[in-house]
Amino acid sequence: MKIKLISILFASIFTISSAFTLKLDGSDKYMTKNGKVFFFSHTDMEDIKAENNKVASVLDSKTGKLQIEILIKSFVFKKALMEEHFNENYMESTKYPKSKFDGKIDDIKAIDFSKDGTYKSTVSGNLTIKDKTNAVKTNATFTIKDGKLNGKTVFKIKLADYNVEIPAVVKDKI
Amino acid sequence: MIKSTMLKRIILFIIIIGIIGVIAYKMWNKPHRDIAAAKKDFTISADAFYKEYEKDETAANTKYLEKIIEVKGVVLDIELENPQEPTVALSTSQPDITVRCGFKKELIDEIKKLKANEVIKIKGKCDGMDMFGVVLTQCVLLR
Q1: What is the per-residue pLDDT across B123-134, written as a single tens digit (0 to 9) for each?
Q2: Does domain A7-168 sit in CATH 2.40.128.110?
Q3: Are B135 and A80 within 8 A, CB to CB?
Q4: Which pick of A34, A102, A153, B13 has the fewest CB atoms within 10 Å?
């Protein structure tokens, strides 16, 4: 009953959006230890939202190489039950505690880090969730302000691409 | 006679539906784990904590994930760039590696009072390790 009640609420597409403010550290590296990632899943019954404020990210401003690491257990949901289901049934976060993005900002040359401004570029690379890696490409917006870089991007993820199984009881309802 | 049996059934039915409703409602609104009130599972120094992770991340995760850890360490940095989660970084023997302890935003005033190099005790939930070290969230200060 527990599973039925809640699991139908998770749709088969997750949206992960992130908003990082990265600070210059040393020579060419921008980084954050407390970046933010939102998790969003829309369903007919209710929208499911969660937030993670412990995202680690490093950007090499010369090469555009971008690394992001997300600890799944740091996601906070409004409802404890949703958090539990997200961790146990979907992400199996005890077995797979970390998700990663390893890639680059494609248009890094177009970004002038020395002055304030807003830039659009695609971000491409490998996204690993539950030890399964897929190539992804998505649009991103970067803003330079007072020497800080703020990046915004959205990843749309199909559960099936990352071995996220929907409990059999509820499969038909999604 | 027949009428009263009917009535009893209807009342019984309503009671059962009511009980199911209450149980479902309680399950749905189950409260979050109260880390502040929870008993600690482990007590460890920040450096020893990281060393266990560095040695074998999988083994350390098996041991510590989701557990309540009381960690003792030296404040290296107060990280306030994300206002949603003020963070205290405790130093380890590795220069760029810390144990990052995330607090609820309501506790920001308490965090701001801390000073670098102060020795403190923090209790929190272990979320694992990333490229910057070990992460605890939903922390409380123990002093």
Answers
A1: 999 999 999 999
A2: yes
A3: no
A4: B13
